[in-house]
Amino acid sequence: MLVPVPQSKPREMRRRTRYRGRVCFSPEGDLVGGLVVTAIGVDATRHLRGRNNHLLLATMPLLFGAHQLDESLVWWGLQGHVPHEVGRVAMWIYLVIAFVVVPVIVPLAIFKLQPTRRRRWIIMPFLALGVGVASVLLVTMVRGPVTVKLGNYHLGYSIGLRHGVLIIGLYVLATCGSLLFSGYKDVVIFGVANLVAVIILARLTADGFASLWCFYAALASGAISLHMRFAKPHRASPYALT
Predict the structure, then answer these.
(1) H-helix or E-strand containing 149?
(2) Which of 37, 43, 46, 240 is the least buried, fewest Cβ under 10 Å from its Cβ?
(3) How is residue 101 annotated by DSSP?
(4) Is residue 239 one of the residues assigned to a domain?
């Protein structure tokens, strides 16, 4: 999960946070990571076994894989290996997935796989919050400016974002919170690990965050694949909380 990370600014700039995202350390790293995560996604979808309510969850690794593959084009656009317009379009696709799609699709996927109506009602506020956060981030990006710069072993994305710390907190709440309140015990455990990982990644140095993001995406996708393999559709109750 890509989370906005605020940077320290002079006093007159503190109210306007610029998102700085550090991701995989090279276009080749994004390419290899994207292929691995996509393969994990294919494996997850192969284990649907007729569970239509798990379809969105199973396809999330495919989204993560495409996300990383897309960033390879962003790298190559900045390096001059592909036309600038291609890199610019790839940048927008990358940010739309990170800031608009992810905060909605994560709680929506958890909502759809819940085993009881009560659990679906519990997840509903996180879904509504995700839609709200995605809307704010989309409007912010449309207003601009939106830029990406080539740094040392990372790409730095910037958007103008007011009240960044609040939006970051709500983003994490919408995504991680929906996992923590799932009716499936393994999803709850994954939610705890997800929350810890997000906090650690957000507090690491730029280089640390850069080197770990690809591995984290693969880990998250692997957890989804394991859930698809071992959560049995005909015995939902023993695997779910009431």
Answers:
(1) strand 146-150
(2) 46
(3) I
(4) no
Confidence category of residue 136, pLDDT binned at 50, 70, 90: very high
Preceding peptide of 145 cis, ω within 30°:
yes
Bridge partners (DSSP) listed for residue 147: 158
Ramachandran angles phi, psi of 184, nearest 5° = -100, 125
User: Using CA atoms, how far apart are residues 122 and 133, in angstroms rounded to an integer?
Assistant: 18
The answer to whether position 152 is within a domain reads yes
Crossing angle between the packed helical segments 27-46 and 55-79, to the nearest 10 degrees: 160
Query: For residue range 185-197, what is the model confidence (pLDDT) as tens digits?
Result: 878 888 888 788 7
| Rounded Cα gap, residues 119 and 178, in angstroms | 10
Q: Which amino acid is at 206?
A: A
For residue 147, report the phi and psi dihedrals to the nearest 5 degrees: -135, 160
Q: pLDDT-derived band of residue 23, with 50, 70 and 90 as boundaries?
A: very low
**DSSP at 6:** -
Phi and psi torsions of 15, nearest 5°: -75, -15
For the chain, what is the total number of helices (H) and then of strands (E)?
A: 8, 3
pTM of the full structure = 0.78
The answer to the question of residue 44 being in a domain is yes
Is the residue at 81 inside a domain? yes
Domain containing 216: what range?
16-232
For the chain, how many structural domains are there in total? 1
Nearest CA to 222 among 53, 65, 115, 21?
65
